[in-house]
């Protein structure tokens, strides 16, 4: 009995460092978080993705203890920490635009948390030096934040949180204040830092590319609700709804009607043609549905290149945009629907030349499409 | 381009001229006058003398100067203690309410300060509104004798100068990034630590500005001690007033004024020094001024 309990405890600690149960929060009568349930695994890089006002930052503040929940519970290593103040939590935050203390040197900023814990001076020095070395800022310890570049400030903010050896690091839009190139570099640095430290990172962002690049798992939020939780691949390739599909990348969306359906396959009508697709979501005959196709999954062929145009959508080229590594096409189907397609240069088609007004046929690899229940 | 340069030259020389006529010349003539001898018929006469400064160092004068300093320090301290929490709370209020409250604070200052001091007299005199209310409610059983005491002078000075302390501190707290407080809490700081280690150092420029704005005028607002304090409570301002207007001893009045000017320079220098050595925000704020 006892061994089982121990094993169970071990299992739980190993797997879920945070369990969020029916968490809700309202501000001035407005629901910001609505009955959130989420388990966060120990050591994972979790990204909370959503537009501004979706409640993602509030969720982060509830985890850090800067706000307290109206209802629901947060468990940290099986301990109910819902009402704990921030200083008791092994959770530290890297704030948006860094929130470095402007009147303190880099060293004093990083040492702030350790001084509050009243650690010995030599211990503080050792740990601050190690943290600054980790973020490659050991030479700038005596500078003030205003004397640092955005990227350096970002590193100080990370060091200031990490030096307290938290079990979880929360990052609130940490890269939004940086320019494009620096953001790209920091994405990889954050990812490798997380792997090096082996602690849980929870990063909040509205940037889907950032989420896809860094996360082990992504939580997509909208209006205080969790829309989907999954790996970047699941979120991108099998979105639960049109909102997620549109938020995470581009998508062409077609209204279709299910003509025939069985357990494995459906036949849908689209542009007066029939298409045989896999039936992953249990559609029935007569259902209305939405067919989702990613631009880069579409293959655009000239009419004369094709013998059998079954399972292809006929269209005309409206715009041709050369982007260096790819070519973006804006196409218009016979029924008037706009379709975006991204074509890659490869050995099949090195030139990728399309004339404006040219009649083309669009195909995709069967199974790469997403069929979703109809919504307005 | 040429027009532009002309305008620059014109505006700068206009400003310089203004400063020379209304600041530099009066200051220099005060300084010069302070070294001349008193004359009953002509305000002043030759020869040059240091006698005026000798008189300023007279124990009686030194007593007034030190009392002025003491009054100023206390007034500034009370203003600071009242203004800081006030400014802090004001800065936390919703953006729609702030301008309204700031306006309420400033509106009384559109009336003459002498009138406001008479109003205070009406409030605190033995049979005034304050005593009537307090007696009626039963908090006190004997009327308070406030008027013509040092307390009345304090009340008058603090009332008159409080906004000059609130405004610079409010500006500093208001522009403070609230995430700094969050960050400090996140790193484990309690309220006291946040106040001492974050809020206070960052708002120091505002505090210093407020201190300067309150400390120096306290010594010169001679009508407040005159009206509220009665005969005994002379400050540096009153002394200058008496020397210039009652005794008609201009050289001595000028010498006393120079003491005040020197004090002002000392405090401005001190403020500059603290800002240079406190923080980068302090440097920025000093640069803005």
Salient structural properties:
heterodimer, A: 376 residues, alpha+beta, Rossmann fold, OB fold (Dihydrolipoamide Acetyltransferase, E2P), 2 domains, 5-stranded antiparallel sheet, 20 strands, elongated, B: 289 residues, mainly alpha, MetI-like fold, two-stranded antiparallel sheet, 14 helices, 2 strands, globular
Structure characterization notes:
Chain A is α+β, with helices and mostly antiparallel strands and 376 residues long. Chain A has helices at 2-15, 56-64, 106-116, 121-134, 150-162, 180-197, 208-214, 232-237, 242-247; strands spanning 16-27, 30-41, 45-49, 71-76, 79-80, 91-94, 168-172, 200-205, 217-222, 225-230, 252-261, 265-270, 273-278, 288-293, 299-302, 313-322, 326-333, 338-344, 359-363, 370-373. In chain A, the strands form four sheets. A six-stranded mixed sheet of chain A has the order 6-7-8-3-9-10, with helices on both faces. In chain A, strands 13-12-11-14-20 form a five-stranded antiparallel sheet, with no helix packed on it. In chain A, strand 1 (16-27) and strand 2 (30-41) form a beta hairpin. By secondary structure, chain B is mainly α. Chain B has one domain (51-287): MetI-like fold. In chain B, a hairpin with a 3-residue loop joins strand 1 and strand 2 (43-45). In chain B, helix 3 (59-92) packs across helix 10 and helix 7 runs antiparallel to helix 10. The chains are: A alpha+beta (376), B mainly alpha (289). The A-B interface holds A 64-66, 86-87, 92-93, 95-97, 99-103, 112-113, 116-117, 144-147, 160-161, 164 and B 177, 179-180, 182-190, 193, 197-198, 201-202, 278-282, 284.
How would you briefly describe this protein structure?
With 376 residues, chain A is α+β, with helices and mostly antiparallel strands.
Summarize the helices and strands and which ones pair or pack:
The complex is a heterodimer of chains A (376) and B (289).
Chain A: H1 2-15, E1 16-27, E2 30-41, E3 45-49, H2 56-64, E4 71-76, E5 79-80, E6 91-94, H3 106-116, H4 121-134, H5 150-162, E7 168-172, H6 180-197, E8 200-205, H7 208-214, E9 217-222, E10 225-230, H8 232-237, H9 242-247, E11 252-261, E12 265-270, E13 273-278, E14 288-293, E15 299-302, E16 313-322, E17 326-333, E18 338-344, E19 359-363, E20 370-373
Parallel strand pairs in A: 3-8, 3-9, 6-7, 7-8
Antiparallel strand pairs in A: 1-2, 1-4, 4-5, 9-10, 11-12, 11-14, 12-13, 14-20, 15-19, 16-17, 16-19, 17-18
Helix pairs in contact in A: 3-4, 3-5, 4-5
Chain B: H1 2-33, E1 37-39, E2 43-45, H2 51-56, H3 59-92, H4 98-106, H5 113-124, H6 129-137, H7 150-174, H8 178-186, H9 191-202, H10 204-220, H11 223-228, H12 236-246, H13 250-278, H14 280-288
Antiparallel strand pairs in B: 1-2
Helix pairs in contact in B: 3-7, 3-10, 5-7, 7-10, 8-9, 10-13, 12-13, 13-14
